[in-house]
Amino acid sequence: MFLFTVVLLTVLSGAGQAADGHTYRRTDPVTGQQLLCDRCPPGTRLGAHCTSSCETSCVPCGPGLYTEFWNYIPDCLRCDACSDHQRVVRPCNGTVNTVCECEAGFFWDQHFCRTHSQCKPGHGVKAAGTPHRDTMCELCADGHFADVRKMHAACVSHSACKTDEQLVMPGSRWHDNVCATCDHLTLKGLVDVFEPVLSGLHIQYGAPIERLQKLVHRRLRRKRFGKRAALRRDEGPVHETSEEVHLNLPSIVEESNLNHLADRIARIILRFQHRCNGSAPLTL
């Protein structure tokens, strides 16, 4: 295989043999005469060598074949086919080989196209991935975040609350500041306010948003009515399947980060309600 490659490259380039790029030297096997033969142009191959009485004969390359340089090779080269997750940038046309490139969302990694990496929570895109390079990520600086709900988000500054809003929950490296007005003191309003945080937790931990909401609601009830009352309300009027009950009460959840985060959100909601003087109690 190595010998064939060397011979093929020598034939294509004519190193040490050609008077110029369009000719090559050979010895006539009949007369022994040294001849200077014309090479075949790109898109063709050698049909027959020149002789003392005939010029070089060239044959066009057929479909799916090509030659890119002036040559005297006996067979045209086969056009390359794009592999998985590649697209054709330039089709093979007889004089140039197929040019392939990784499709959107992939980059070339030595032998195949790989999916662009997703930045970890708290990290944003420093340089977007290209067909030739993977995504480059960086840790978001203090006061900045990369929205974990977006696949390729860059680090941006935390948003400032509007003049009629209060800061309910400071932003982190993976979510923005949570701002609200006292008009949000309804169950639906607070769910909407914390939706980015709950969605981010869903992405990071794989827990359904409904499950996270139930964890927060239970802790609010527990802080207001006590643990036993909260559990009774969980197990009473709510019609759940056995699987949903299992998801609500396993010890693994009680020991996870979700439990701590649900407690934190519940405390934040209660403090916010307390700050809204004269507002109606939150209906759970």
From TrEMBL:
SMART domains: TNFR
Subcellular location: Secreted
Principal location class: secreted
Signal peptide: 1-18
InterPro entries: TNFR/NGFR_Cys_rich_reg, TNFRSF_decoy_receptor
Disulfide bonds: C61-C76, C79-C92, C82-C100
Pfam family, one: TNFR_c6
UniProt KW Repeat keyword: yes
Entry protein name: Tumor necrosis factor receptor superfamily member 6B
Gene this protein is translated from: tnfrsf11b
